[in-house]
Amino acid sequence: MPEQPSIYSLTLNDLRDYLVSKGHAKFAADQIFQWIYKQGVIDPQLWTNVSKKIKEDLIINFDLSVPTIVWNGLSKDGTRKFLVKMIDQQTVECVAIPAKDRLTLCISSQVGCAIGCTFCHTGTMGLKRHLSPGEIVGQFLAVTLWLKQNVGESERLSNIVYMGQGEPLHNFDNVKKATIIFMEDKGFGLGQRKITLSTSGLAPQIEKLWDFPPINIAISLHAAHNNIRSELMPINKAHDLERLFKAIRSVPLKAYRRITYEYLLIDSLNDRPEDIEALAELLDKEKSKVNLIPFNEYPDSKFKRPSNAKIIWFQEELLKRGFVCTTRTTKGQDILAACGQLKSEYEKLNLWE
Ligand code: SAH
Ligand code: SF4
To answer: What is the assigned CATH class of domain 7-61?
Structure first.
């Protein structure tokens, strides 16, 4: 790792404090934020309204490099996948998913993941390390610059989901800082409704969400019975459904509106009538939104995706009971867009070495 911290790890206030501590003008922080995040100009030589002294100081004391995109792929449905290499050669993936009026970037919060869900390809890798705020922001910046250069201004990222590799609440402080940077008006200026954090259910960290910007929260529920959830997600052995929902009740809901519950549909495991009953019992339909995710099979995965008829039936049963419920359409299947898949495939092939 470089000796200097990444400049992209700094919030606007951090940068102001730094400049003041070095006897520079505080307002230059606002100009630098605008250059980097609003204009996408990362070369300090081009920051025409910033003094030479400040630029020299930053170049000496900070790492200004942006993570490198070492591979990208475009799916037939418009989804773009990027493999992003950090300064220590570790790679994470990001996926840009287009929808009618938005372009959402799915970003990673860690290299690998410690939670070890049995259905998840990332979970099989274990945790390599946390990403710094600058590396989380760096993914968004790298893809923004890539799109500008290769596609043009028409494709601009508008939303973020923390649904790539890693458990964002396991890396609470760095994800929090990155989120503050994403939301900074002088920078990318993303609104709180444009950012969604997905968590496997770290109850103690969920209880700390009062100390987090009020973004959308998604809980990876995947089962409404403790025994099935524990089989899928070892975290459920530490924090079972009762503990999880105690934590969820503490989330300041006024700001978050509804909490999204992600429910992975796995053939013959959690797609039965009794699963619908248990789910309807567990969730408060006024405060919840259910997002069904048909299991995305990968080479050697031990679970199967249910039939389309089963998926539609499951959704209709929840709608009938008055739930807001959507089914996630699988995006970018032809480019291995599911969690953790691309990285592993490419590591096997060592394509970029
Ligand atoms: N660690 C966080 C966020 C990253 S995973 C979490 O678990 O919530 C983002 C989503 O992808 C989660 O809901 C996860 O359950 C889901 N996922 C993982 N592997 C999958 C697969 N093979 N098919 C479909 N969804 C998967
Ligand atoms: Fe980690 Fe989420 Fe994968 Fe579970 S589903 S192993 S928490 S990335």
So the answer is: mainly alpha
